[in-house]
Amino acid sequence: MELWQQMVRDSVHTVDQLVEKFGIDRKVAEELDEFFQARINPYYLSLIRHPGDPIWRQCVPDKAELEDFDAAEDPLMEDAMSPVPNITHRYPDRALFLVTSQCGLYCRFCTRKRKVGDYEKISMKGLESAFKYLEEHTEIRDVILSGGDPLMLTDAMLEKILQRIRAIPHIEIIRLGTKMPCVLPQRITNKLTNMLKKYHPIYVNTHFNHPWEITPESSKACEMLADAGVPVGNQMVIMKGVNDDPAVVKELMQKLLRIRVRPYYMYMADETKGANHFRTSIETGLKILEGLRGHTSGLAIPHFVIDAPGGGGKIPIIPNYVLHKDEERIILRNFQHKVYTYKNYADANNPEGFGSKNKTNGKNGKNGSNGNGKGKKEDMKPKKIKLPELSEIEN
Of 118, 292, 323, 370, which is most buried, counting CB atoms within 10 Å of its CB? Predict the structure, then answer.
């Protein structure tokens, strides 16, 4: 048995352990265990500094979970978009492939808690039909292995899956969605990385949420993957009491770059059952993004997205940097709130743009501007844009 497997075996997971280690009322602990079991491995447990800290909140069951039963079990409609067991096919050229129900740590905010930890919900029996689906759908060029966590599989089992996928000619990219570099970095071994090298291009999407998770152990794990030619990207979820602070996120993103992990996505928390106490406002997310753009390297800025409820996929959100746009110019503000104008030139997609030959008498606009930036002053003022009411959209 490898070290990481022993650490999984030694995890806090029983009602008795929850009562003893965290002082949770026994009846509450029993209800929480029935709702979504705990698994806190010794490594991640060691990162907790005090009760209720950002590490504690992510892994220790909380009675607040029991007050949020109205939310959807599958807010992203993954099951509805599953043509065969273990496959979700939402986007045209890529597919999600669930290969195990197990994780090295059970996150309390998990969006897939309806399946995680249940061998029946994500079964190895579904692998063959999943392989067949991938073989038949030639539009799929990118496969994301997830679960659970694919690195909960043994090296031998994971290699069998990689071999089978790599034998499909139209599949170009294989990604591993894994939290192991963050929550159980002992899983990243020389044996594993040497095996992964054989199936490039392999990418890893991992999941750090707080700077305290970047330790000598997790740094070494990420650097081992990078040294093996495996690019590592990070997906962070904004959570109340964990990382809903621009300074915390900036520190996290900068530390990730130092260990060769590229910030990839920053998510609003999914509307999943038992996670309402983690949710923040969209304004909080925009404030965090504003605290990054212009204030640190562009490499440190992830895509800020909402994974739309109902299966709409990832939709990007950015602060409003555009104050006005028309055929001839766009008026913008930067991270310091200074305002700038950029000409919107004519081309096939904007035939009436700046410099258009369609303009008459040398004029570049109905307002009499001559195209040299010396039009009437009022022309440069931002125009108010009327946005539709929500009721208009819904109707």
Answer: 292
